[in-house]
Specification:
2 helices, alpha+beta, about 45% helix, seven-stranded antiparallel sheet, about 190 residues
């Protein structure tokens, strides 16, 4: 009886494929380590970028908070002038400019009285400092280390118009300034 050669011996093609798989597995071991190292490096760089962005966001968030407070304080300076005008306007014995005398003023939201600034330059003004109170409001104070200063400048535009400029300086690494301007008229 004759044996069939294809049953007794494995084919050379099958044997060659098996040898290629074994050799490929042996040679691929180093490649796997390189892939792990590269993946770890990429992951580390991504995490470092995320931490950097988070740090920058926190820093900018703090700066934005001071700028927002300064903007609100400048707006409040204009509103105090409007309140002074309205308070005097309702008084029948009062006439234009309703308590809005020209000059540089230190104003407090809790009062309709005015105090003259001791210097026309806000950076040199000693009585223009604002300090945060326990209720988060800001009031005039004598603290030279205050990070907020406000001065309101009132000037005459015409016989029936006053220009109000509310300037706030605030410390954010360096001193920065915000100005708000509004014209008030005698519109009785």
């Amino acid at each position: 009886m004759k044996k069939h050669s294809y049953l007794a011996q494995p084919s050379t093609t099958f044997q060659a494929k098996k040898n290629d798989q074994i050799n490929h597995a042996k040679s691929g071991a180093g490649q796997t380590y390189i892939e792990v190292i590269v993946a770890t490096g990429l992951l580390s760089m991504a995490l470092l970028a995320i931490v950097g962005l988070a740090t920058a966001q926190l820093k900018l968030g703090g700066q934005s908070a001071k700028k927002l407070i300064a903007y609100n304080l400048a707006s409040e300076g204009v509103e105090v002038c409007e309140a002074i005008r309205m308070d005097q306007w309702l008084d029948p014995d009062s006439s234009w400019p309703y308590g809005l005398a020209d000059g540089n003023w230190v104003l407090d939201y809790s009062s309709t009285s005015t105090t003259a600034a001791d210097n026309a330059d806000l950076s040199l003004c000693n009585n223009c400092s604002l300090c945060q109170q326990a209720d988060d409001s800001f009031k005039i104070c004598s603290d030279s280390n205050s990070i907020f200063k406000r001065m309101v400048t009132i000037s005459t535009v015409s016989a029936y118009e006053k220009k109000i400029i509310s300037e706030v300086r605030y410390l954010e690494n360096t001193w920065k300034s915000i100005k708000m301007e509004k014209n008030l008229t005698d519109w009785k």
